[in-house]
Amino acid sequence: MFYNYFIKMIQYKTKEEVEIMRQSCLLVGKTHAEVAKVLKAGMTTMEVNILVEAFIRDNGGIPSFLNYHGFPYATCISVNDAVVHGFPSNTPLKDGDIISLDIGILKNGFHGDSAYTYAIGEVSEEVKKLLRITKESLYCGVEKARQGNRIGDIAFAIQEHTEKKNGYGVVRDLVGHGLGRSLHEDPQVPNYGKRGSKEKLKEGMVLAIEPMINMGVKEVLHLDDGWTVLTKDRKPSAHFEHDVHVTKHGPDILSSFDEIEKEEKINVNLSWCY
Ligand code: MG
Ligand code: MG
Known about the structure:
globular, 5 helices, alpha+beta, 4-stranded antiparallel β-sheet, binds magnesium ion
């Protein structure tokens, strides 16, 4: 999310608040799974948006992004070279496309916010690798979200796995964020940086960690719709996002990809960053 929309103070959550947040975050995962069940070539991203909004409202939530600083839709749907903040459209998806679907839900006063990049049909090997490495980098970052570490440790772990090891571009203009009663709270959680730098992590912080990783260069373009962010070289970009409660005992992931991965029939191997 763009820097200028942040609430400028870290809001620490009580255990009770974290449990309320977990419900919002899990509902985001369930909403994603509803999409994963039906997503295929020929569908339009506007149809995805309609499905998402209906499911959120049927489950007592409010789409967090709708009207957020004027954003006109319930979801951000970014196809291929669109990085984030894309508008749903009436163009049918094709085999080989990827779509980054970002969903936010406000329920019982707290937001959940989670993004996932889906492959439509068979995608190229290099795109498959981009999706795999980006998802892996998310877990590399999550693993650092523990009391006593710093934001820079999360940032470094993500950059290391994507840019340094795999030559991808880490987007600089957009960052992860604190999450709670507001959709974007301090601290900012960049996907690049130095180990041991920035804010110290403490129990009660809830962070939306969200690598936005380009297959090519890190630079992006902003469309004149005021929202859509594209890669400068028009190569594809991937986006995965989890909401994580920092605890003394390590990261507690409040959101979930389990139901999405069940639909996608993907098994995740988390061994690379330990
Ligand atoms: Mg998001
Ligand atoms: Mg976010």
